[in-house]
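protien #1 (seq + structre)
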Amino acid sequence: MKSSIGLTTGNPLSAAIAVQNVVKASVLVGLDLREATIAIVGAAGSVGSGCARVLVKNVKRLKLIDINKQALEQLVGS
């Protein structure tokens, strides 16, 4: 039986909340994200990669850190 309800692991929501928190924190400390360097530890994971895809468009420099080199290279290539 098919369901019309979409199911998710919750990781997209976690990534969205993490990005929101980065934006809010930058405002609180007076940091212009367009001039900032941001590092994401665990960048090739489901939450980290979601954050990277959003933040790459909004920051000056994005540093991606992950133990899984192959997954990290795939993320950079996407």
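ok now protien #2
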Amino acid sequence: MEGESTFRNLVNRVHLDDLGDLRGSLAVIEARREFPFPIERVFYEFGCPAEATRANHANLQARFGFVCVAGSCTVDLDDGHSRQSTRLSSPFDLLVVDKMVWKVLRDFTPDCVLLVLSDRPYDPADHIRSYDDFIAWLRFGED
């Protein structure tokens, strides 16, 4: 994924090998390999209307991996200095996003199933849900 130098350490796109055979395709994600962190939580999003947006937040500590196992969606990313969008449309594309990156998921196809990995259990206190608060955190830390 092309982008500003600030994103190079915060976002990484990993191509997953197709380990399948005549019986079908197989993609593998292992903690500390393709997903470079321990996996503490796995969830998936599906049935999202095309006009819906999801995420709309940053995380203080949690890091994520996103892979569209079916269909496609767009992921908008913002590190407070630069923004970029990427389309996920292959079950062999893993997008790894570090903490403190604003994320918006959008433009879901009707068949989209987005698998999400995280290195932390869900914690509402880990979420920054206001973009203005996110920018303040980046500039000043917690007040």
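Residues 1-5 have pLDDT under 50 and may be disordered.
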